Amino acid sequence: MTKSLKKQLIKIIIATLLFAGAFFHLPQIIELALLVAAYLIVGTPILLKAARNIRNGQVFDENFLMTIATFGAFALQEYTEAVAVMLFFQIGEFFQSYAVNKSRKSIAALMNIRPDYAHVKRGKELITVSPEEVKLGEIIIVQPGERVPLDGTIIKGNASLNTSALTGESLPRDVSKGENVLSGSVNLNGVIEIKTTSVFSDSTVSRILDLVENAGSKKAQIEAFITRYARYYTPTVVIIALTLAFLPPLLGSTLGLKEWIYRAITFLVISCPCALVISIPLSFLAGMGAASRCGVLVKGGNYLEALSRAEIFVFDKTGTLTKGNFKVTNITAFIGSKETLLQNAAKVEAYSHHPIAASIKQAYDRKIDLKDISDVEEIAGCGIKAKINNQDISVGNKKILDKFGIAEPKIEKDGTILYVLYDNKLAGYIKIEDEIKTDSAQTISLLKAHGIKETVMLTGDRKEIGYKIGKKLGLDTVHAELLPIDKVSKIEQLLGKKSANGQLVFIGDGINDAPVLARSDIGIAMGGIGSDAAVEAADIVIMTDEPSKIISALKIAKKTIFIAKENIVFAIGVKLLVLALGALGYASIWAAVFADVGVSVIAILNAVRLLPYRPKIL
Amino acid sequence: MKKSYKLENLDCANCAAKIEDAIKKIDGIKSASVSFFAQKIEIEFDRDETTLVAEIKKIISKIEPDCELL
């Protein structure tokens, strides 16, 4: 609790005691003295503010309205109610400030990933400096329990890192020499030496903080609506209050001026739109906070709102739904055994660094005996040829068949096919496929369960491969063999398909995706915190490479919007109800006080409940 | 140009909205956003910063006198 809040609390307690004292059937003059004292203790700051604001031309201000309302109650000799209005108004304000402070703190705690210092090795000395002072390529040391201050590569030592602040992943990640580490992760054990690969301002942690800090400026439509509503609400209520006080008596109402003024006062007490003005932006902030805890960075409240209205999800294939690393899935031998075929292929590819060679070597998974390999020769655009135990072995794509005049066998080409030739005769083939991520299929089916109309995959890969993966994952539509420019025009076609309010979401790994990310209603970049262009172009960044995080984001977005709407309906509903009852003479000033501050506090608590929300995906 | 400033003692959310509204009406302001929770003001403008900040300070002191731009 801050100092000013504490002071406020003490004032409220004293005033409440005095106020309670007035109920003990004391002589009237003492009772009145107690009430006035209580009023002045809690009310003076309000009265002063009201006076100052009138001087500044701010008439429709809650302080002024409270002043008028309480003065009015005094004039009607409703002393206890006058004091009650002021007292409860202040109690409400106190709770509001307390709740706001608390939420500010818990949001700040979410963002508390900024490293305070770095131990840098300079010459023989180890000095502690602020992360901004570390230069590119310098060597820093991170002790157990410390936060990694800058991005870099480990040159010595190994450790388990807690990356949950960056990725939402709660399991620690084991890292050792040669691996990259991201700033913002926390070293759990082990001492590691890191050679920095970025300066602080370009580091992951700075980029995340920058994103999060700027997130507030993009406001959702609902927020804009509330601001507009607030602008008209107060003046309208005040004008109605004035009319209510004086018009019926002028028209000859039998209830008398006193009753009508009392009713007008209930109006003035409800005239502040605070409940909405505070709770709606808070809902969005809490939603973004909850998302970032799951490893999803949302760049603004407007994107959460848009995501909740998503209709079409468009996926990139490689690196998004698939891992982007290749794996041998089928070996077929026409001559000899499968094992020999794989062994021969692995030997021919032994010296190659091509990703396909790597996948064959991985499938072989034994030490390759290099002694019997000779005359390795690359056949440009076709493959590789080598002599193994004096036998000519070639491995290559379809063109190698053409080169040796071999007819292409009739096989399903739903992957990359590598043909293996023994002495220029087709001996068999090896099929290599991009691995589908473990949570891809589940993500697609969950999207459908959440009412998404269409799921689409766009890929530059061959049709057979694209369609096969599309079918496996249960995607509605697959467009294959697309150039980057075709992807943009496909997105434009799809944009025409959605309903007026619906949103199109594109999810890519950020490589070559920037134009598509920008063209979509919502662009989501995956595993993208390493890639500048993606983070720049995307509206939402998923820190890990799991597509299922989209479901978390979608759930949080829907819940955020639900809570925001709930607050709007609740706050406006209660206020209108009490206004109506007040106008008819059924609502006392007590009800009005509840409709003002009680509703605010409830709405704030409702918004804050988003903060600890962690959606369950399974 | 884009800039953001910290605000101190911005205690009322409605005032934040009013301040934002008033700042948007200043000449040379392209966009303005006041965040009640971050206690921050963010503006995009194309004019001299010093006179603009003076003008913003004046608006703030009028709407919420306790609030200060840092």
Descriptive account of the structure:
The complex is a heterodimer of chains A (618) and B (70). By secondary structure, chain A is an alpha+beta fold. Chain A has three domains: 118-213, Calcium-transporting ATPase, cytoplasmic transduction domain A (Distorted Sandwich); 272-321 and 437-618, HAD superfamily/HAD-like (Rossmann fold), CATH 3.40.50.1000; 323-436, Calcium-transporting ATPase, cytoplasmic domain N (3-Layer(aba) Sandwich). In chain A, the strands form four sheets. Chain A has a seven-stranded mixed beta sheet with strand order 10-22-21-20-11-18-19, with helices on both faces. In chain A, strands 2-1-3-9-4-7 form a six-stranded antiparallel beta sheet, with no helix packed on it. In chain A, helix 1 runs antiparallel to helix 2 and helix 4 packs parallel to helix 20. The longest helix of chain A has 36 residues, at 549-584. Chain B is of the alpha+beta class and 70 residues long. A four-stranded antiparallel beta sheet of chain B has the order 2-3-1-4. In chain B, helix 1 (13-24) runs antiparallel to helix 2 (49-63). Chain B is globular and about 30 Å long. Chains A and B meet through helix 4, helix 7 and helix 9 of A and helix 1 of B.
Supply the key terms.
heterodimer, A: 618 residues, alpha+beta, Calcium-transporting ATPase, cytoplasmic domain N, six-stranded antiparallel sheet, B: 70 residues, Alpha-Beta Plaits, four-stranded antiparallel sheet
CATH class of the largest domain in chain A: Alpha Beta
Task: Please state the CA-atom Rg of chain B, rounded to the nearest Å.
Answer: 11 Å
Number of strands of chain B: 4
The outline of chain A comes out as: elongated
Question: If you average the pLDDT of chain A, what whole number results?
Answer: 86
Largest sheet of chain A: 7 strands, mixed
> How far apart are the first and last residues' alpha carbons of chain B, in Å?
18 Å
Structural class of chain A: alpha+beta
Q: Uncertain segments of chain A of ≥5 residues (pLDDT<50)?
A: none
User: What does the radius of gyration of chain A come to?
Assistant: 34 Å
Q: Helix content range of the residues of chain A, please? A: 40-55%
Physical arrangement of strands within the biggest beta sheet of chain A: 10-22-21-20-11-18-19
Main sheet record of chain B: 4 strands, antiparallel
Helices of chain B, by number, come to: 2
* Strand percent estimate of chain B: 25-35%
- The number of strands of chain A is 22
How many structural units, i.e. domains of chain B?
Answer: 1
CATH topology of chain B: Alpha-Beta Plaits
Shape of chain B: globular
